[in-house]
Design brief:
The protein is an alpha/beta fold. The protein has 14 helices and 14 strands. It has two domains: about 5-85 and about 230-390, Alkaline Phosphatase, subunit A (3-Layer(aba) Sandwich), CATH 3.40.720.10; about 90-230, Alpha-Beta Plaits (2-Layer Sandwich), CATH 3.30.70. The strands form two sheets. It has an eight-stranded mixed β-sheet with strand order 10-9-11-1-12-13-2-14, sandwiched between helices. Strands 3, 4, 5, 6, 7 and 8 form a six-stranded antiparallel β-sheet that branches. The protein starts with a helix and ends in a 9-residue tail after the last helix.
């Protein structure tokens, strides 16, 4: 029996409430001063929470493996990220409520900046605003290639979703995005004989798109990755007996919540908006996933100071969440995004679990170094959900 099967067997429906706060890309690495972003930030409320809780570090997938956002979040939701895979394209599509049809293949698109030699100088085109992306998407939308329609819609900032709709398509193809500057976009290659048509159509589309985008500097290129179809996972409510509410301003994370069957409620673009939405819905659900994107964006931009400021901004608002008095509160991240790396890292992520029945440890600060000595130890991220359920008294005893 795997973890999902065991949870389905043991979980109880109760009145207790759980709040899971995911500070995207939370973990960091030391800067020249020898401190991580969390160690640098003034976060007295997080530190106070840690001193009353049980803390530790978690690996989103396995030690040494750098996770994408999909595996990182699925692990936090209690799913084995090695068994439950989902492509970025589907997440982007679901996040904007795109009406996916059977057989659709979706890819996540990044508008990017190319130099005169076709080399990528900025994978995010200066994070062009969503309105600019919407104009560009409308010019790319509706291209037909070999009877396959290509649908393009803006997501947020530089991100678009590209959906291929037609017969005989496969998602077993490679990305065109090398995920590094200083390289040219890559051709899309078939992963097997069944995906040659998909690869050919994707490459034709990218060639046509490059001509359309040529005059749109800095968004004069398009990178595709995460070709995928809709997966089918065990439902969150079926497994955990929870009425779950997802609060996320960024489309992809709404998509992740939808994949597992959470109710995704409307919210605004800021953390204040998200906390307001949490308050408004607190009596309607018994599990809340609240997502904070800004930590990850700062880390990806290599902006150490901005990530510190985001953490401090969250800390100032933390009492508003604690004030709702959830029975169990978890604060962690889906992965590390150290500003010194400028991207996702394989490094373990701090986690704090707070509740009446937690056994507090000696940790008195919420950061990477302090959490190493916490009572949770070093655990797989997929074990956090059972811990939250247990501390909310939502698990029966296992065995006689």
């Amino acid at each position: 029996m795997d973890q999902i099967g065991l949870m389905r067997q043991l979980c109880l429906k109760t009145e207790t409430k759980i709040v899971l706060v995911v500070l995207d890309g939370l973990g960091g690495l030391p800067n020249d001063a020898g401190k991580t972003e969390l160690e640098t930030a003034h976060v007295p409320n997080l530190d106070a929470l840690a001193s009353q809780s049980i803390c530790g570090l978690s690996d989103p997938v396995l030690p040494g493996i750098t996770p994408g956002s999909g595996p990182g979040h699925l692990a936090l939701f209690g799913y084995d990220p090695l068994q439950c895979m989902i492509g970025r394209g589907i997440l982007e599509a679901l996040g904007i409520d795109f009406d996916l049809k059977p057989g659709d293949v979706a890819a996540r698109g990044n508008l990017c900046t190319l130099d005169d030699q076709g080399i990528i100088t900025d994978r995010r085109a200066g994070r062009v605003d969503t309105e600019k992306s919407r104009i560009i998407a409308s010019q790319l939308d509706g291209i037909e290639i070999e009877g396959v329609r290509v649908i393009v819609e803006a997501v947020k900032d530089h991100r678009v979703v590209v959906v291929f709709r037609g017969e005989g398509l496969s998602d077993s193809v490679t990305d065109s995005d090398p995920q590094r500057v200083g390289l040219a976009p890559q051709p899309v290659f078939a992963g097997n004989d069944d995906s040659t048509k998909m690869a050919r159509i994707a490459n034709v589309f990218l060639t046509q798109a490059s001509k359309i985008l040529a005059g749109h500097h800095p968004a004069n290129g398009l990178l595709l990755r995460g070709f995928s179809r809709m997966p089918h996972f065990p439902g969150f409510k079926d497994v955990y007996k929870l009425d779950a509410c997802a609060i996320a301003s960024y489309p992809m994370y709404r998509g992740l919540a939808k994949v597992v069957g959470m109710t995704v409620v409307k919210t605004g673009a800021t953390l204040d908006d998200e906390i307001k939405t949490l308050k408004e819905n607190f009596n309607k659900y018994d599990f809340f996933f609240l997502h904070v994107k800004a930590t990850d964006a700062a880390g990806e931009d290599g902006d150490f100071g901005r990530k510190v400021s985001v953490l401090e901004d969250f800390d100032r608002r933390l009492p508003l969440i604690i004030g709702l008095k959830p029975d169990v509160m978890v604060v962690t991240g889906d992965h590390s995004t150290p500003a010194t790396l400028g991207g996702h890292g394989w490094h373990a992520v701090p986690v704090v679990v707070n509740g009446k029945f937690c056994r507090p440890d000696t940790v008195s600060a919420f950061n990477e170094t302090a959490c190493i000595s916490g009572g949770l130890g070093h655990i797989p991220a997929c074990h956090i959900m059972p811990l939250a359920m247990a501390n909310a008294l939502k698990l029966e005893k296992y065995g006689a």
